[in-house]
């Protein structure tokens, strides 16, 4: 169970996230929606540790993470994908995934950097990386430098890195941003596959409401940094406060 209690962050006099309390259970995909500037990505940053909270706390499986760094939260089980890809561009596809597998193995055994153990485990690390690449249909590109990949394949590779970290919580911030009409379904299919594992919790920030309707078990809505709606997707999308907060500007423009 991932939980936030009164999570708040202020930038000077501006409250970007205002006392948001939520619980996210394993086996569910929760979509976080709202207009631009609502605080969605900032809320993600508070959960994953990219930003320190002004007030409130973050808990995972009854363990408080609030004072932990972003890397420590990753080791605790929070896996985060960003709007912009976050990869090693000069390394190959396989090397990127193998590094993530290696980091997970080292963290699990609490060994730190041990060159002899890394060398002795090289074959096992490589095979695990290859298995992950096969699951995201990228085996054919394993030797290609990441910088040479099209944007869609880089987004797929970022999902592969998340899978290699074996998190209990997957956090996707607009995973189809910048992708073409043909590329986006590949990422959505990967998220559907992850959703089948009922031990995992998935959080999704997404502007495309057709994607939200299809994938989400639950929707929460942020507006001006505050939680204004939380519940079943059909009911939340139809609620007056969401229609006004999320669609009001569009109606005015029309």
CATH superfamily of the largest domain: P-loop containing nucleotide triphosphate hydrolases
Count of beta strands: 10
The low-pLDDT segments are 107-111, 250-254
User: How is the CATH topology of the largest domain named?
Assistant: Rossmann fold
Specify the structural class: alpha/beta
Distance between the termini: 42 Å
What is the string of SSEs from the N terminus onward?
EEEHEEHEHHHHEHEHEEHH
Q: Strands across the major sheet, in which order?
A: 6-7-8-3-9-10
CATH class value of the largest domain? Alpha Beta
> What is the molecular shape?
globular
The domain tally reads 2
Portion of residues within helices: 40-55%
Global mean pLDDT:
84
Helix count from the secondary structure assignment: 10
* Percent of residues in beta strands: 15-25%
Q: Any guess at the CATH architecture of the largest domain?
A: 3-Layer(aba) Sandwich
Radius of gyration: 19 Å
Largest sheet: 6 strands, mixed
What would you note in describing this structure?
It is a single chain. The chain is of the alpha/beta class and 254 residues long. The chain contains ten helices and ten strands. It has a six-stranded mixed sheet with strand order 6-7-8-3-9-10, with helices on both faces. The chain has a four-stranded antiparallel sheet with strand order 2-1-4-5, covered by helices on one side. It starts with a strand and ends with a helix.
Strand and helix map with partners:
Layout: E1 2-11, E2 14-24, E3 29-33, H1 40-48, E4 55-60, E5 63-64, H2 70-76, E6 78-81, H3 93-109, H4 115-120, H5 122-135, H6 151-165, E7 169-173, H7 184-195, E8 201-205, H8 209-215, E9 218-223, E10 226-231, H9 233-238, H10 240-253
Helix pairs in contact: 3-5, 3-6, 5-6, 6-7
